[in-house]
Design brief:
heterotrimer; A mainly alpha (292); B alpha/beta (254); C alpha/beta (293); A: 292 residues; mainly alpha; MetI-like fold; 2 domains; 77% helix; 1% strand; globular; C: 293 residues; alpha/beta; D-Maltodextrin-Binding Protein, domain 2; two-stranded parallel ribbon
Chain lengths: 292, 254, 293
């Protein structure tokens, strides 16, 4: 009787796993099959390597997504540039240096930050962050890649902080004590021993933060200007892949080249996210082996 | 034995974990270049005592102490004392070896670097010296960049000793350094300790009485937080003054 | 257990009762243009107040969505802030739907610049060149020496399409900021000395800190002010579009009744109050011959 129950539970978990894998493969398959007809009309080179995206053009439609890819990468890298050092530093501060009272206040604040809806952040980008950026850089408006980067950094920060904290807390006490025993200060210990020891967990947290940034739609749609031109620098407006899909999929007539092409963008996004995760995995594995 | 100079003097030392008192009125004089063995049953406070000597207990929240521990005449618990400096002078080797997840070289160099040494040649020289001092140089000189975890258990422990030696401490505290090692590795460590005492003062906690008998000059017997007996090793093991010491030595209780 | 079943049964019965009016086929369904949704909703409210027992449901979704719904016979009236396209007519006829057009009002596209910008008049040609990205500095149109910052709508907006087809006759500049809605354009231009944007007339009336630009059809022609009803009535303002409703076949019964209300003086009063332009005389005649309202 217990045997049968055991087998049933095994079966259930296996089924669970199958469903998850199945959903993932299913999504990929839908993207591929729905995007495929687009490439009868558009060459892959034109799609990936030209910069003009204008399917509803007055003249001839163009389907180049290079500007979008660059835009997405720009805001993601910008967000990580802000969130990674800030996040790891905050995590290090909270685990080792902060007094318990500071920790008590900081933790709920970070949780709240994580819960802010993306539309609210987008709104703050328009009414708060944007004007500040415009004033600081002398721009006509604050709808640009920097704005997007700041907002996405806010979104990625709680993830990076929480997971890095967990990683730092799981560093064995023995390392910390060995470090103190040769006369290191708290900060030296955190920076030179704990962070390197926890690097795989910290790296994973950054990858998760990056995934959040790449896939974010609403915030960038509201606060980055959505101009389709190839951005020249971070002070230019950007139009990410996610924003383009969100804007256009609602009104595109079904089963037209434009429609298929939008799914093509979705496919590219999927592949990019997939590659990021694979790279993260590979680095993690390499590091796990080293540390044992 | 020629006892010259008191390196560490413990006086009226009481230690509390929160409300619970772990050490009661401990008084001990530790002389330079001697090996002091600390024995006693589990929970008697020997590790707590050892960790008090380099203020390692400070990392535990809620600890309190009274009394003084002086190093070369200066109370290490006085206000304004630089703990970092104390810990550099009083090194520690732990029960379970804990090399950093770095290379052999970087492990030993760690203490030098955090204390501000930047000169690569000086670092290399001191690393070699420390590894020799820990009787490990011959075995690792060709694989200094290998991960510390590639070494055997005994080698890792000697690496930890080398790491502690690198900052040129005056005292070495060892908390059951060989308890996790096989007999061969253990005897290597014991030999090393005899060598080291020429230049360092060593306080070693051990639950292995035979080991204490083998290597210590003076032996301290702790029980329930109190220092019961502290005398020349030979005397403690053959003709102890206190009955309870004798009962412990002869294995009447563990 | 019994409690739970009783509760669920209660909810079920309640939802059926509430939806009875809809189920009873008395509901007139209207869908389409987001530009028109508020004003048509207002007209529907007043109509329902005047005619208890009649139910009108109005939703947005865009002009294209509305026309598609009429083709699929899922709604009675489609709101469209643009004219139906040829392919859409063909698709409708293929589904056995004959789209009939009723004009219920007009919408002026107003061009606004920042209140501190001294440029207050442009020709349509200049406007087109500006939004195509060919003119990039205000000094080229009589203003200060500062670059022009463009604010427009997203490509899914009927206003975007209309402005492009009537004014630009070409593609928008790649560097134009695509804003998500009229109020965003208003806020952006208000905050940006170098900004220019296009919005519906209703929003322009309410906006401080903006200057409405007068437009002339050609160089040397008369510059018309969209906030001046006389200019509009005289047909002088060049960027004006019809607000249409499309019905399957000739309107009759409750649909015709509602349409008649919309084109009546009472309905048209609501149109003006909401910032749109009432039906000009030639379309009044058109509605009568074309749809019998």
């Amino acid at each position: 009787m217990a045997r049968i129950k055991e087998n049933m539970i095994h079966g259930l978990f296996f089924l669970n796993g199958l469903v998850v894998v199945g959903v993932l493969c299913g999504i990929f398959a839908i993207l591929v099959f729905t995007a495929a007809p687009a490439f009868k009309e558009i060459s892959i080179v034109e799609f990936l390597a030209t910069v003009r995206w204008n399917p509803t053009s007055y003249y001839k439609p163009s389907y180049g997504i290079l500007s979008m890819i660059v835009s997405s990468l720009m805001v993601t890298i910008g967000a990580l540039t802000i969130a990674v050092p800030l996040g790891i530093g905050t995590a290090a501060y909270l685990t080792d240096v902060a007094s318990p009272r500071v920790r008590e206040v900081a933790k709920p604040v970070i949780e709240i930050l994580a819960g802010i809806p993306s539309v609210v952040l987008g709104f703050l980008g328009i009414v708060l962050v944007g004007p500040i950026i415009a004033r600081v850089f002398g721009l006509p408006n604050g709808l640009n890649a920097i704005n997007g980067s700041v907002l996405l950094a806010v979104m990625a920060l709680p993830t990076i902080i929480s997971l890095s904290e967990d990683a730092l807390n799981s560093v064995p006490r023995s390392f910390t004590e060995a470090s103190y025993a040769v006369g290191a200060t708290k900060w030296q210990t955190v920076v030179r021993v704990k962070i390197p020891a926890a690097i795989s967990g910290i790296f994973a947290s950054c990858m998760l933060g990056m995934g959040r940034a790449v896939g974010e739609t609403m915030t960038v749609l509201m606060a980055t200007g959505c101009a389709p031109a190839m951005p020249r620098n971070f002070l230019d407006p950007v139009r990410t892949m996610t924003a383009s899909i969100a804007i256009e999929l609602g009104e595109v007539p079904y089963y037209t080249t434009h429609y298929y092409a939008l799914f093509g963008i979705g496919l590219v996004l999927f592949v990019i996210t997939f590659l990021i995760n694979m790279a993260a995995d590979a680095v993690l594995n390499k590091y796990q082996v080293k540390v044992r | 034995m020629n006892r010259e100079h008191i390196k560490i003097k413990v006086k009226d030392f009481n230690f509390f974990y929160g409300e619970e008192q772990a050490l009661k009125n401990v008084a001990m004089d530790i002389y330079k270049n001697e090996v002091i063995g600390i024995i006693g049953p589990s929970g008697c406070g020997k590790s707590t005592f050892l960790r008090s000597l380099n203020r390692m207990n400070d990392v535990i929240p809620g600890v309190k102490y009274e009394g003084t521990v002086t190093l070369d005449g200066k109370n290490i618990f006085a206000h304004g004392i630089d703990v970092v400096d104390i810990r550099r002078k009083v090194g520690m080797v732990f029960q379970k070896s804990n090399p950093f997840p770095k290379s052999v070289f970087d492990n030993v160099a760690y203490g030098l670097r955090i204390n501000g040494e930047k000169n690569k040649d000086v670092i290399a020289e001191k690393v070699e010296k420390s590894l020799m001092g820990a009787a490990l140089w011959g075995e690792v000189k060709d694989r200094l960049s290998a991960s510390a975890f590639d070494l055997s258990g005994g080698q890792q422990q000697r690496l930890c000793i080398a790491r502690a030696l690198a900052v040129e401490p005056e005292v070495l505290l060892m908390d059951e350094p060989a308890s996790a090692l096989d007999p061969t590795a253990t005897s290597k460590i014991e030999e090393l300790i005899q060598e080291l005492k020429k230049n360092y003062t060593i306080v070693i906690v051990t639950h292995n009485m035979q080991q204490a008998a083998r290597i210590s000059d003076y032996t301290a017997f702790f029980m329930m937080g109190e220092l019961i007996e502290y005398d020349v090793a030979g005397k403690v093991f053959t003709n102890p003054s206190k009955k309870i010491t004798e009962e412990y030595i002869t294995g009447r209780f563990g | 257990m019994f409690r739970k079943t009783a509760k669920m049964l209660g909810v079920l019965i309640l939802s059926v009762v509430v939806s009875l009016p809809a189920l009873s086929q008395e509901m007139v369904q209207v869908r389409g243009s987001d530009t028109m949704v508020n004003v048509v909703q207002r007209m529907a409210e007043v109509y329902m107040q005047n005619n208890p027992g009649r139910y009108i449901a109005v939703t947005g979704g865009g002009s294209g969505t509305g026309i598609a719904a009429i083709t699929n016979k899922t709604v009675d009236i489609a709101n469209a802030s643009r004219d139906i396209r040829q392919q859409e007519i063909i698709r409708a006829r293929n589904s056995g739907v004959e789209p009939t057009r009723v004009v219920i009002g007009m919408d002026c596209i107003t061009v606004v610049v920042n209140g501190d910008n001294n440029v207050d008049r442009l020709t349509v040609a200049q406007l087109g060149a500006i939004f195509r990205g060919e003119i990039t500095n205000w000094k080229d149109v009589g203003g200060a020496d500062m670059p022009i910052t463009l604010y427009g709508r997203q490509s899914n907006s009927g206003t975007f399409v209309f402005f492009r087809d009537v004014v630009l006759k070409g593609d928008y500049s790649d560097r134009m900021n695509r804003m998500n809605g009229t109020s965003q354009i208003v806020e952006a231009v208000r905050a940006d000395r170098t900004g220019i944007g296009y919005i519906g007339l209703g929003h322009a009336r309410a906006a401080r800190g903006l200057r409405v630009v007068r437009l002339a059809l050609r160089e040397g022609g008369e510059y018309a002010d969209p906030t001046n009803p006389a200019h509009i009535a005289e047909g002088k303002y060049p960027i004006i579009r019809t607000l249409n409703q499309y019905i399957d076949g000739m309107p009759e019964g409750r649909i015709k009744d509602f349409l008649s209300f919309e084109v009546s003086p009472e309905g048209q009063k609501i149109m003006s109050e909401m910032g749109f332009v009432p039906i000009p005389s030639e379309y009044v005649e058109y509605n009568r011959t074309n749809a019998g309202v």
